[in-house]
Amino acid sequence: KNQVEQSPQSLIILEGKNCTLQCNYTVSPFSNLRWYKQDTGRGPVSLTIMTFSENTKSNGRYTATLDADTKQSSLHITASQLSDSASYICVVAGTASKLTFGTGTRLQVTL
Amino acid sequence: DTAVSQTPKYLVTQMGNDKSIKCEQNLGHDTMYWYKQDSKKFLKIMFSYNNKELIINETVPNRFSPKSPDKAHLNLHINSLELGDSAVYFCASSQFADRQSYSYEQYFGPGTRLTVT
To answer: What is the pLDDT along chain A (111 residues), one digit of tens a residue?
Structure first.
């Protein structure tokens, strides 16, 4: 069964600190892995998309890594800001034209 | 200059009613999607249309019927609404997504919060 598990479920950090969110998946075959940011009351916004051959990709203060052998990905946020408070969703695309979504990590950045 | 728009943003209705949610994208994309996000924030795809043709139809009750009058619009009609239909429904679009991969970035609308009482 295709699954995407994310950890932690929720996280509270101080502004300016770094954090790392984890994603483990069992989707097979694998096409690509995406990280989305979803603000409260808004639709998800894509941060990164990585294919099998890519093991790291950055988007500003967001850096995603992918280990296709262990089927793990992480999203590292550097120098967090209050505006980073959101849910971060890991999504894996299989070549069967289906996306499998994780349930997300709820990040809260505080002063 | 909204990329993907949905109406209405909120919809409160009683069980048994029929309702529609509209979606429009001005990105020139060929593929549009409907997703359901439940109370646990879990997103699940319902339908996907490519250039007005249905390409994905997940296990969704046939009370849900998508309609795509043109490739810029994908509406969702729901008959005989049930309590379990309460959720946030997201429309999304992307460049053409063939059956083998989903390489293209998807752009999501703001969502429609449906509450069935």
So the answer is: 788 999 999 999 999 999 999 999 998 888 889 999 999 989 999 999 998 888 999 999 999 999 999 999 999 999 999 999 999 999 998 765 578 899 899 999 999
* Residue corresponding to tokens 């249309």: B49
Tell me if the bond preceding B66 is cis, omega within 30° of 0.
no
Residue numbers in A near B23 (CB within 8 A): none
Given the structure tokens 């460049």, which residue do they identify? B95
> Which chain A residues are within 8 Å of B55, Cβ to Cβ?
97
Q: Would an 8 Å CB–CB cutoff place A71 in contact with chain B?
A: no
Overall average pLDDT of the B64-78 stretch: 93
Q: Are B15 and B81 in contact (CB under 8 A)?
A: yes
Give the whole-angstrom CA distance, residue A96 versus residue A29.
8
Q: How far apart are CA A109 and CA A79, in angstroms?
A: 11
The C-alpha atoms of residue B53 and residue B36 are separated, in whole angstroms, by 20
Q: What is the largest CA-CA distance in chain A?
A: 44
Beta strands A45-51 and B19-25 are unpaired
Asked whether the predicted pLDDT for residue B106 surpasses 60, the reply is: yes
* Residue A69 backbone dihedrals phi, psi, to 5 degrees: -70, -45
Pick among A5, A9, A59, A101 to test the B interface (most B CBs inside 10 A): A101
